[in-house]
Amino acid sequence: MEDDIEQLKEPVDKKLLAIEPSYEQIPAGVLRRMGKALRMGVGTALPLMSQAASINGIIIGSANAGMDDCVKFLNQIIQYDEGQLTPGSFVQSTSNVIAGQLGMISKNKGYNITHIHLGLAFENALIDAMMQLYANPANSYLLGGVDEISPYHYNIETLAGSYKKETVSNKHLYETDSPGCIVGEGAAMFIVNNEPSAAVAKVIAVNTIHSKDIDVVQAQLKTFLQKNLPEGEAIDLFLSGENGDNRTLPFYTACESLLADDTAVVRYKHAVGDYATVSAIGLWYACNILQTQQVPRQMFKRETAKTGYHNILMYNNFKGLQHSFILVSDGK
Amino acid sequence: MGVISAIGNSVAENHHALKAVTCGVKKELDLFPSKYAGVLPFGQVQISTETLQKKLAITEPGVTRTTMLAMHAFNEAIADAGLSQPDLHSSETALIGANTVGGMCLTDELYHDANTDHDGSEYLGSYDGASVCLYLQKHYQIGGIINTINTACSSSANAIMYGAMLIQNGYAERAIVGGTDSLAKFTINGFNALHILSPDNCTPFDEGRQGLNLGEGAAFLVLEKEENINGRKIYAELTGYCNANDAYHPSSLSDQGDGPYLAMQGALTAAKLSPGQIDFINAHGTGTENNDVVESAAMIRLFDTPPAFASTKGNVGHTLGAAGAIEAVYSILSLVHQEVYPNLHFKNTIPATGLTPVQAYKKMTVDHVMSNSFGFGGNCSSLVFSKV
Description:
The complex is a heterodimer. By secondary structure, chain A is an alpha/beta fold. In chain A, 34% of the residues lie in helices and 20% in strands. Chain A has 2 domains: 2-193, 3-Layer(aba) Sandwich (Peroxisomal Thiolase, Chain A, domain 1); 202-329, Peroxisomal Thiolase, Chain A, domain 1 (3-Layer(aba) Sandwich). Chain A has helices at residues 28-32, 36-51, 67-79, 88-91, 97-106, 121-135, 151-159, 214-228, 249-256, 269-272, 279-292; strands spanning 15-16, 57-61, 111-115, 140-147, 183-184, 186-193, 202-210, 237-240, 264-267, 300-302, 311-318, 322-329. In chain A, helix 8 packs parallel to helix 9. The radius of gyration of chain A is 20 Å and the shape is globular. The relative contact order of chain A is 0.16. The model of chain A has no long low-confidence stretch (mean pLDDT 95). Chain B is α/β, with parallel strands linked by helices. Chain B has 12 helices and 14 strands. In chain B, the strands form 4 sheets. Chain B has a 5-stranded mixed beta sheet, with helices on both faces. In chain B, helix 7 (155-168) crosses helix 12. At the A-B interface, helix 3, helix 5, strand 3, helix 6 and helix 7 of A face helix 5, helix 6, strand 4, helix 7 and helix 8 of B.
């Protein structure tokens, strides 16, 4: 993905679809039976897991993994009037299917869990990983966030008014003054441990809140920074989850306003779209920026004279209710 | 603690029914039309959805039975623990829920909303598993970490674990933890397609077992640090827990039962107990061919001679995402009342294991109880509760 970070792909039918590799590590017979979320999750995790010396557990956040198979099975129930049904879709319909399959394929008998709390599913997975590492400091865990645009879920969310009605080029996403986002999908996986020497980045703290009140969210961010940003350090870059939805924009503006004028402001959802566990992709972007010290020009909302990114603050807002702050540093 | 199940709508009713050896699993199903209604036995909660809605004073549209069952148990739990409005609003109060069905109990509405591009139903925001805790958060304005876990049939055991870890790691001062699931055409047909629904009442650990019965219900527990109790009632201490994976098959356990073994062993280690100190095991014991023989083998592997054990699936059916939390309540009742509840419908031991579950209600010394929950995806979790 490093080579592609400068590239922007236009939405197709108002959707930003994940570009899938050939998944060489998944046997063809197994791959054929996998739904897209499962395929993306397993296909992203396996190459990473094969590089790691040891993995003691698998921690996945996914709001809707299995939803596609769930409705496929439901359609069978209705169409065949509860007749003799094939269980394949039912078994793949539970949200824990990605973590379960990864455990099975990698023969990993350790901690294995799936967090499904919608727009904070990945954040809870991240908190879980941090807690596992407090309890077991020598361990390593696979941590990931995965969701797909399934036709059925897309239909339900369209009826609920989650997406933009008009066709928008991703180049102009932030100029729209209309409700809704461009839907996306994807998977991002990380190996997390307490070993700083080979680390790409360090997650300092994560905080979540449910609120529809901008003042409450802003106050939460103030407290979060007071508590977690070391004395004398600054937020060098604000990785904003702004998604072009005029219903959530005021929250992003309010959080941005708390930061110093020389904080770079960077956005990424025009490239990957928005979905419940998109913060996993956001964290990947943060890691990439810390590692390369480069930000593609099209990602800047506010470019500053600042050089050297040490501390990145991520803020994400899911449907104006579920908020998360993640502080990531280069660990130096 | 709060619980609602096929054998009662409160902790007191469930306790009474367990002592009275009550079977709540019957060939009755009137929640929705299904060709299996009256044919297969189910553990249906004996309150209609409309009555539940009235009882809970829910006026807004889009609230599912799964959420109502959760709210019923949640209300009992917070009242029992004496939590005030400010307690609930505090950023130190976490809510960790679990379920597997979510709003999929609404088969026809979901079918419409997933396949039609107009006239969305009132349930558009209610299908996913997170909708239960999102509703409870909104209703009670809960201020701390909110989460939903789905590890299939072990979901709410993991919700209890996650809540305990949040407290231990300083993310919360208290955690309201539990699970819920309602009966659904979806799960009935799913388990039926896997040929693991018993045509009659399930007979956990019996040689002639023919599968599981589906049930429904919810349970919530309030976990708090001992130093914050200030004279309020303490039922038990959660002394150990462990989550492990069987890493074998998407919908069945391996012959050697590594997942169940590792979960039970890890929970014992975490509780700093030796196998001989466990007085009673609340077994997962679903009544399927696969689960009961593997769970028995894993118990023998860890305990050599397993302690007294029983499954309550014969009383309430398999309540899926609620099972871990409901059975945590039952395990705690055993500790509080120094008694164990029998495994219903058992006749003959499985020859390969020779294990016989508890067959009659009895008073006994119970200092430490282990509760097992195993699920699809190889997800196995065990909890240990100890007498205070």
